[in-house]
Amino acid sequence: MPNSGRNRIFFLVMISLLLLAVILLSISSGSPLHQITSPVSAFFSPIQKSLSQTTDRVSGFFESLREGIRLRDENKALREENARLRNQVTQLEDAGRQFEQLKDAFKMKDRFAGYDLIGGRVLTREIGTWFDVFRIDIGRTSGIRVTESLSYAVVDAQSHLIGRVLTADAVSAKVLPLLHEGFALSGQVNVVNGSLLRVRGSLELKEQGLCLVDQIPAGAQIAAGDEIVSSGSGGLFPAGIPIGRITRVIEADSRDQQQAWLEPYADFEELSTVFVMTGRDD
Predict the structure, then answer these.
(1) If you placed Cys at 215, which of 1, 82, 87, 198 could pair as Cys (CB 3.0 to 4.6 Å)?
(2) Which of these ranges, 54-68, 99-113, 223-237, has the smallest mean pLDDT?
């Protein structure tokens, strides 16, 4: 048994030495073995080259695949970062608009010193965007009490007239906009001793975003471009709230039947924040 083990070890050592000798002789250009193996090498050289090229292409494919995955991940990260930045810009723009609205509200507070202002948000619109009743998040818990003889003017942050409070529940109220055919108020041409008149909603004009001006006194001087403000007559609306400008004067057979069209200042389509004007003694 020990002799058998030594023989195997001797055999393996000899085989190893023989293979080493063959390798060295095949490498040497002057050896007979090199000359014998050269044709075989020439035969296998194209195959070896083709295998090498295939290996390179496979390696290149996987490298391109890895690079594509890396670029995809980078693009995803860039898109997420871009979305985050856009969201920040939108938030800053919203904050800027709210800041401007607050500044305008403070100016309005000084202008209408006899009234308190309660700010609120537009919640829903009952039918459409422009012309119909909409709901705000101000109600009786904010001190809003609507009766047959008591209501409140509603304005935007630039103190432009929006309408009046129609009804109120505990936490919300409905606002009747001035474009609605059920709305009317006493207005005045915004000049010294300007003529009194009536501004009201009209079924025929509201689709154009206009109000009708009527009850114009005979001999009153009114022209396109004139600014109309609330007159304060009747006590519901304080005097001097900007309403809009005259866009067209319609002459009639007699001066007391003169009418006009008015374009409101308020941007009802973009309206999101409003202020309810309440008197201090309400």
Answers:
(1) 198
(2) 99-113
The predicted pLDDT at position 11 comes to 72
User: Residue 263 phi/psi, 5° resolution?
Assistant: -100, 115
- Please, which residues have CB within 8 angstroms of residue 258's CB and are 6 or more apart in sequence? 216, 220, 222, 249, 250, 251, 252
CATH 2.40.10.350 given to domain 112-279:
yes
Containing H/E element for 185? strand 184-189
3-state SS class at 127: coil
Mean pLDDT of the chain: 78
* Closest C-alpha among 141, 192, 135, 189 to residue 165: 135
Contacts of 253 (CB under 8 A, 6+ apart): none
What burial letters (b/e) apply to 211-243, b meaning 16+ CB within 10 Å? Answer: bbbebbeeeeebeeebbbbbbeeeebbbeebbb
pTM for this predicted structure: 0.60
Residue from 129, 263, 245 nearest 209 by CA: 263
Choose among 180, 175, 178: nearest CA to 243.
Answer: 178
- Please state the rounded mean pLDDT for residues 38-64: 62
Confidence at 101, pLDDT banded by 50, 70, 90? low
pLDDT over threshold 50, residue 119: yes
In the numeric block, which tokens belong to residue 147?
């009766």
Q: Which of 259, 246, 237, 111 is CA-nearest to residue 162?
A: 237
Biggest CA pair distance of the chain: 142
Assigned token pair, 93: 């723009």
